[in-house]
Amino acid sequence: MGRCDDCAYYVYDEEYDEYVCEANMDEDDFSRMMEQGTSTCRYYRDGDEYRVVRHQM
Fold first, then answer.
1. 42: Cβ contacts below 8 Å, ≥ 6 apart
2. Domain that holds residue 13
3. 29-33 LR contacts (CB < 8 Å, sep 24+)
4. Quick one: 16 exposed, middle or buried, by C-beta within 10 A (0-12, 13-18, 19+)?
5. Around Cβ 46, how many Cβ atoms within 10 Å?
6. Residues 14-56 pLDDT 10s
7. Residue 40: how many CA atoms within 13 Å on its side-chain side?
8. Do 11 and 19 meet the contact criterion of CB atoms below 8 Å apart?
9. In the 3-class helix/strand/coil scheme, how is the chain assigned residue by residue?
10. How many domains does the chain have?
11. Is the pLDDT at 1 greater than 50, yes or no?
């Protein structure tokens, strides 16, 4: 999942010992995303916390 790597919803879960997507989506949305690929994920949110700060500089 190339685009998931920098998504704000892609977080490490210690219980599963792996990264998981915490976006609030239903089964239909998830299966649609898997069919089309992550490049079209409508839940994607840039996880770059410093983006706003760089913009203000």
1. 29
2. 2-56
3. none
4. exposed
5. 9
6. 999 999 989 998 999 888 888 887 677 888 888 776 665 666 6
7. 9
8. yes
9. CHHHHHECCEEEECCCCEEEECCCCCHHHHHHHHHHCHHHCCCCCECCCCHHHHHHC
10. 1
11. no
How sure is the predictor about 5, in pLDDT bands with cuts at 50, 70 and 90? confident
Residue 31: count other Cβ atoms within 10 Å of its Cβ.
11
Q: Which residues pair with 10 in a beta bridge?
A: 21
Q: Please name the amino acid found at residue 46.
A: D
| Nearest alpha carbon to residue 7 among 55, 54, 39, 34 | 39
Count other C-beta atoms under 10 Å from residue 10's C-beta. 19
